[in-house]
């Protein structure tokens, strides 16, 4: 993989195909509804969007919702994108729509990965979080179908008050399900998500340290979302271990190490993606946001090029400049490899340039000043 200039092109594009969904999740960013919106991007508009995505050096494309399977043309859209050379994955809801036939169609058109959400190791925890009885059992059945059809599985989990105490059991379940990646989301209080559902900054830190240890013991990859400060933890731990081996590594080395990513072990460019920085979200009606968790509209693909919005929107340009960050994030030595969750900063302070509210770290410059 060649190096990506996040000022020009995103690493990943998320397209919310629809907001329709049969579930009623407690944390739902989209506040999904049971019926499709009449102003959704139609198939022809979707093809135009895919063409514009390809012009941004073929980033990864993820179909989300709502539930993408609520759109009858989802496989036609996927097929068009894949034929244009995009890597496409999908995050459908675990509903009766997820049949073995539906998964076979996904495999036939060439989807690279299928992601399911599991937010607890038991039906009681997961179903409560997803707001729908039977969701856990449907998910497990669908995972069986995936394995039978040999389609790679990704498990998504939102860390919150509902499952913080059972993450060890959750990891064991994920390993038993033979997935290729565990994508661990950290709750941002937007949509139906509440501040009271978030874990504390010190609890974030504990989970990060645990995930770093776990990543060295399990056969699947671990990726975090809305947890940019996990990179600081991983890099710091790598620096400490290398120092013990008399191999001095500074955080600047991690920043400048290209795409080899030998320091943070996350499988991506060391500086990572953040809201509007390597990451862009397109809503069901074509509105463009830095991410689905940062609800500040920067344009609409019906009237502007997605590439132009991503590259030139003042919002996106600000988000890609860590020197504009405020508070701790603005003076943190890790701001170029971390940057904190801009969406969580916005959700809790109303300012997407403010400090990450769920970070316990005190930057070196602040510690020196205190002394």
TrEMBL record:
Q: Which parts of the sequence belong to the Radical SAM core domain?
A: 7-240
Identify which cofactors the protein needs according to its UniProt entry.
[4Fe-4S] cluster
Keywords in UniProt for this one? 4Fe-4S, Iron, Iron-sulfur, Metal-binding, S-adenosyl-L-methionine
GO MF terms held by the record: 4 iron, 4 sulfur cluster binding; catalytic activity; metal ion binding
Q: So which domain of life are we looking at?
A: Bacteria
List the Pfam families. Radical_SAM
Protein's name according to its UniProt entry: Radical SAM protein
């Amino acid at each position: 993989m060649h190096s990506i200039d996040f000022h020009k092109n995103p690493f990943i594009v998320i397209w919310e195909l629809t907001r329709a969904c049969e579930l009623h999740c407690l944390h739902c960013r989209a506040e999904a509804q049971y019926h499709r919106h009449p102003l959704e991007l139609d198939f022809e508009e979707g093809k135009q969007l895919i063409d514009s995505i390809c012009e941004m050096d073929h980033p990864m494309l993820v179909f989300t919702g709502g539930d993408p399977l609520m759109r009858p043309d989802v496989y036609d859209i996927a097929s068009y994108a894949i034929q244009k050379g995009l890597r496409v994955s999908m995050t459908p809801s675990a509903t009766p729509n997820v049949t073995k036939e539906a998964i076979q169609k996904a495999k036939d058109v060439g989807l690279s990965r299928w992601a399911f959400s599991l937010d607890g190791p038991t039906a009681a925890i997961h179903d409560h979080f997803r707001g729908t009885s039977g969701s856990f059992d449907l998910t497990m059945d669908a995972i069986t179908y995936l394995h039978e059809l040999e389609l790679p599985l990704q498990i998504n989990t939102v860390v919150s008050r509902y499952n913080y105490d059972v993450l060890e059991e959750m990891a064991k379940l994920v390993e038993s399900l033979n997935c290729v990646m565990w994508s661990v989301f950290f709750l941002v209080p937007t949509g139906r998500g509440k501040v009271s559902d978030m874990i504390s900054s010190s609890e974030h830190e504990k989970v990060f340290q645990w995930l770093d240890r776990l990543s060295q013991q399990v056969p699947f990859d671990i990726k975090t979302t809305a947890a940019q400060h996990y990179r600081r933890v991983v890099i710091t731990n790598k620096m400490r271990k290398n120092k013990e081996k008399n191999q001095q590594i500074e955080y600047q080395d991690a920043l400048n190490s290209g795409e080899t990513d030998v320091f943070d072990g996350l499988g991506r460019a060391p500086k990572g993606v953040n809201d509007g920085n390597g990451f862009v979200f397109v809503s069901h009606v074509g509105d463009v946001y830095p991410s689905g968790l940062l609800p500040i509209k920067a344009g609409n693909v019906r009237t502007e090029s997605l590439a132009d919005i991503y590259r030139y929107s003042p919002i996106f340009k600000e988000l890609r400049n860590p020197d504009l960050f405020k508070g701790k994030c603005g003076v943190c030595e890790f701001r170029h490899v971390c940057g904190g969750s801009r969406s969580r900063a916005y959700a809790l302070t109303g300012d997407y340039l403010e400090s990450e509210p769920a970070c316990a770290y005190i930057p070196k410059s602040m510690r020196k000043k205190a002394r």
